[in-house]
Design brief:
Layout (H helix, E strand, L loop, with lengths): L1 E7 L6 E7 L2 E5 L2 H6 L3 E5 L3 E5 L4 E4 L6 E6 L7 E5 L5 E6 L12 E5 L5
Parallel strand pairs: 3-10
Antiparallel strand pairs: 1-2, 2-5, 4-9, 6-7, 7-8, 8-9
Keywords: Metal-binding, Zinc
Protein name: Aldehyde-activating protein
InterPro entries: CENP-V-like (IPR052355), CENP-V/GFA (IPR006913), Mss4-like_sf (IPR011057)
Length: 117
């Protein structure tokens, strides 16, 4: 079921909302996601709205430089990122750990072998 979710960084400077199905999240084992402990969900960028903090975001790219990993320059939390999905659609990657009032135990966690990409 699609719902409006809200979230952001630790200090509150970066805030966003998105229309998403937050039942399944992905636990990627790539060097970046595994070190940060991300649990990710993805939505078309048109379903994602950055409410505040654009001016406080710092971008980090690695490997193929295909994903804009964005983090708050004040508290360092990476609540979301942007890129192009495998289907060619502009996509927001949402760190489920940064969703307000999330019950992580209620989610289905799917492992992803990101090391192989």
């Amino acid at each position: 079921m699609t719902e409006t979710i809200k979230g952001g960084c630790h200090c509150g400077k970066v805030r966003w909302e998105a229309e998403a199905q937050l039942e399944t999240v992905y636990d990627c084992n790539c060097s970046h996601c595994s070190k940060k402990g991300f649990l990710l969900t993805f939505v078309p960028l048109e379903k994602f709205t950055l409410l505040s903090g654009e001016d406080g975001l710092t971008e980090y790219k690695f490997n193929k430089h295909a994903i804009s990993h964005l983090f708050c320059s004040t508290c360092g939390v990476q609540s979301h990122g942007r890129g192009v999905g495998a289907d060619g659609v502009d996509t927001a990657a949402i760190n489920a750990r940064c969703v307000d009032d999330i019950d992580l135990e209620a989610l289905t966690i799917v492992p992803v072998d990101g090391k192989s990409y």
